Amino acid sequence: METEEKSEIEETEEEKKIGEAKKIEENIVEERIYTIPLSKAWISPRKKRAPRAIRILKNFIGRHMKPKTIILTDDVNERIWRRGIEKPPRKIRIRAAKDQEGTVTVHLAEGE
After folding, report:
1. Helices 74-81 and 49-65 sit at what angle, rounded to 10 degrees?
2. Please, what are the domains in the chain?
3. For residue 74, what are the contacts with CB-CB under 8 A and spacing of at least 6?
4. Contact at 8 Å (CB) between 62 and 98?
5. What is the pLDDT along the chain (112 residues), one digit of tens a residue?
């Protein structure tokens, strides 16, 4: 009997998560996939390359999507910093989603 109650509780929690995901999808106005070249970050001194790669990515999103604010997910940040400050990737494939308030959230593209 207790297991039946627990399974019902788990189902309602899963349904809530699905409902929240649908609300997030409804708020998305525009979604695009970009491959952003980060090779200009390699012009910088070794100890400044990853921060410059982040700035390049944010400037690219700012030019192409005209956001009010930009939010980078942890996955994108970790991908740039994965090999350390000296060796960011030469390019990165991202998915940018713009919501109704003008906030752009940057995710890694599928399969990355």
Report:
1. 140
2. 30-108 (3.10.440.10)
3. none
4. no
5. 555 555 556 666 666 666 665 555 668 899 999 999 999 999 999 999 999 999 999 999 999 999 999 999 999 999 999 999 999 999 999 999 999 999 999 999 988 6
Cα–Cα distance for residue pair 79/38, rounded to 1 Å: 12
- DSSP E strands in the chain: the ranges are 28-37, 69-72, 91-99, 103-108
Using alpha carbons only, how large is the chain's radius of gyration in Å?
Answer: 18
Q: CA 107, CA 90: separation in Å to the nearest integer?
A: 17
Distance separating alpha carbons of residues 102 and 81, to the nearest angstrom: 27
Which segments within 5-111 are labelled E, that is strand? Answer: 28-37, 69-72, 91-99, 103-108
Phi-psi region of 96 (alpha: psi -120 to 50; beta: other; left: phi over 0): beta
Look at residue 4 in the predicted model and tell me its pLDDT.
55
Amino acid at 25: E
